[in-house]
Every structure is written in structure tokens, then in C-alpha cells.
Amino acid sequence: MDLNQHTPSSLITPVTVFGNLAFVSGQLPRQNGVVMYSGKVGADLSVDDGRQAAALCAEACLEALARALDGHARVAQIVKLTGFVASTPEFTQQGAVIDGASRVLIDALGERGRHARSAIGVQQLPHGAAVEVEMIVGLT
Hints:
alpha+beta; 2 helices; globular
């Protein structure tokens, strides 16, 4: 069985709306259901590879949000983005990796895409993914 083709857990929802906030569950760098970037940034992948993985994660977050809200018209602001980077212990460029996700959000939503952010290095992510991104979104 190929772990890269696992689907997200049926125990969660991709987006939960609570009041005027939408919480987007962590998204992996998938295309057509397949994790495209796996391994550790700083060993198996370059910073640029990680940045591309983060961009895919942000695109998946926007897609999940659009499905939940019937588009992006209700998005007032991306409030907070949290990016997790599977990386080696000595790797310190998690922020440069998560820049890939930030760029996607700003390009897609303009000023509404600017956000507070955390970029966190972790030992391992689900299905061996290199990056995972989650968001909190303010709604109108």
C-alpha cells in the first residue's frame, strides 16, 4: 500500500466555520490525492522544493475554503497561517519554506491574503509529507 495516496481522516472536516471565523484543517502538498513532496527539508529536499510544497498546501487550503463557502467572497482576511516543515535538526529556514504558502495567499487574495504566521520545524508529518499548512480565516 502506498502511504502517499492515503486520504484525509474521515473523523475531521476540511473547514469548520464558527461565528465569523473559518478554521482550515492542515493540508498536505497533494496533487490528485498524491503527496508530491515527502521527506525532510534540509536532507531530502531543498528550500525551494519545500517552498513549492508549501504553495501546494496553501492552494489546497484555498480550495477547501472555496468548497465550504461557495467561493472566496466571504473571506475578509486570512488571519493566521501555521506552517509545519518536516526538517533536519539543524535546519533553520522554515520561514523561507512557508513563504511559498504566504505568496500564494497574497497572490490569490491581495491584501485580504496578508496574515500573521508561524513556521515550525517538526520531525515528521502525516504520510511522510514535507510540509503541512493550516489557516484561520476571518469571514464577513
